[in-house]
Amino acid sequence: MSDVQLTQTAHEELMQSAEDFALEREGKIPEFVQSNAAYYQKKFRKIGNSAGFSWTFNLWAGLLGPIWFCCRSLWNWGLSFLILETFAIVQIVRGLFGDIASGAWERIAKIEGTLELRRQQLASAIENNTDKIDVYQRTVDSLESTIGGIRLEATQLESTGLTIAGLGLAGLVLIKLVQSVLANTLLEKRFSDWLSDPGISAGMTPKHIALSIGFVAIIIIATVTHYSFPGVFPWLIDFPTERGIRLTSIQWVEDFFALAIKHGEVFFDFITRGIRFVLDGLELILVETPWMVIAAFIILLTWLSAGTRAAIFSGAFLSYMGLLGFWEKAMTTLALLGTAAVLSIIIGIPLGMFCARRERFYSFIRPIMDFMQTMPAFVFMIPVIAFFGTGKPAAVVTTMIFGGTPVVRLTVLGLRGVPDHVREAAISFGASKWYLLTKVDLPLAAPSIRAGINQTIMLSLAMVVVASLIGAKGLGEDVLEALQYANVGQGILAGFAILFCAMILDRIVQGERK
Predict the structure, then answer these.
(1) Which one of 46, 322, 370, 404 is least enclosed by Cβ atoms within 10 Å?
(2) Tens digit of pLDDT for each residue in 481-493?
């Protein structure tokens, strides 16, 4: 058999295979759509044969709108179209039946109350022949003029009702056309995803139909009623609250903290002493040591880590702090936040190493870390003050809560990113668990862990001003005073000092040298 015949045979086999795949794919369409299968087979075939966008029209998708998309599990598109349709329907109902000028009439009613009071004052002034007659007369004239302008505005608004309704109707028709044109293309894409992942839901299940109709109806009815007829149903905007539930919840929280303070005094004293020990040591080194020694040490450390240029900039930053009188406060700030960062790193890296190979435990502490990062600092300062009082230990704990999670997350990320084949190779050569951790996992995860340390330090510095609120002192105290007395110069200069501290630490931790 010649080469030409072999090529032709291979081409025919390839074409036959493609036809078989297309037939098999088309045969699964009824199972996916579960309704009007012949229509979708025809449309999907047209879409699949087109290299670009294929123009098709799905009448039911246009008529049902978001309900059709949600029933087909195209929730992202369904919710987007629901927002657009709701806005258009609100304009239609508002223009035809709503009180468009209700806001203007309410303003007129409020001004008329003030106008009546001023008229009475004017009448009293005329009767008593006081020198305030002209003042009251000008006020009355001004209010009457304002009411006339607002009344004219209200009349004009009422005359625009049909225009608003017409624009809303045009927008609704346009949205319906877009839905009809996009529906088959989007459904065909979901069908392709379903072929590769059978876990994707198919068809229009009764659960999806009921959920879609109920959800869309509630959203449209509530929104249209509220915006078209404001104030008619106050319960649409005012959540039904119960004062007793709030008071009971407050009492439960206070009782819990009172119990924790009563029975955990020894534990909190132990933590406070530990923080004090580290903090006093760092303050002794940074604050009491001669400034030349500390400056030389920081510049040398920056040079070793990040090179000559970074060392020069560090020297300039340190000179800025010294010349402007921020040296002692900067060292106090570094001692305070260095304590928080050191404790966060000492706790965070081993915790991240433990979580990296234990998914269940990590799933348990992940919500706790989310809470620590997202809860505003002023909120968790309340229990910290209750447990540790005010002062530097409380500031350290607050800073650890806010800035301690990145090192855990990035340690886990780095260790999980170690290639499995590298670990398997080390194990196959007889590496022990300790050797695997110290010579394989940690070196390969070092960039991620170093980034976590950097983020913890940066977030700790971001707490400088907040920590000063509970007696932390340092550079944050200058910024706080500047805020209280509107001292722009002091606040800006202290802010630059905090920025330079952050830049020096960033260069030391991250560095450029391998």
Answers:
(1) 370
(2) 787 777 788 888 8
Predicted confidence (pLDDT) at residue 350 exceeds the cutoff of 60: yes
Q: Is the pLDDT of residue 177 over 90?
A: yes
Q: Do 454 and 509 contact (CB within 8 A), yes or no?
A: yes
213-246 burial: b if 16+ Cβ within 10 Å, else e: eebbeebbeebbbbbbbbeeeeebeeeeeeeeee
For 192-215, the pLDDT digits (tens) are 888 777 777 776 777 778 888 888
Percentage of the chain exceeding pLDDT 70: 89
Other CB atoms closer than 10 Å to residue 71's CB: what's the count?
A: 23
CA-CA distance, 327 to 36, in Å (whole number)? Answer: 78
pTM across the whole model: 0.63
Among 303-307, 320-324, 347-351, name the one with the lowest average pLDDT.
Answer: 303-307
Nearest Cα residue to 340 out of 296, 384, 292, 293: 384
pLDDT value, residue 514: 45
Domain positions in the chain: 3-98+164-236, 102-159, 272-510
CATH number of 272-510: 1.10.3720.10, 3.40.50.720, 3.40.50.1370, 1.10.274.10? 1.10.3720.10
At 187 the three-state DSSP class reads helix
pLDDT at 256: 84
| Residue 214 token pair | 């109920």
What is residue 234's DSSP assignment?
A: G
**Closest C-alpha to 67, from 190, 179, 212:** 212
Residue 312's contacts (CB-CB under 8 Å, 6 or more residues apart) are: none
Question: Helical H runs in 233-376?
Answer: 243-263, 265-283, 291-306, 308-323, 327-356, 359-374
Q: Count of residues for the chain?
A: 514
Q: What are phi and psi of 58, to 5 degrees?
A: -110, 105
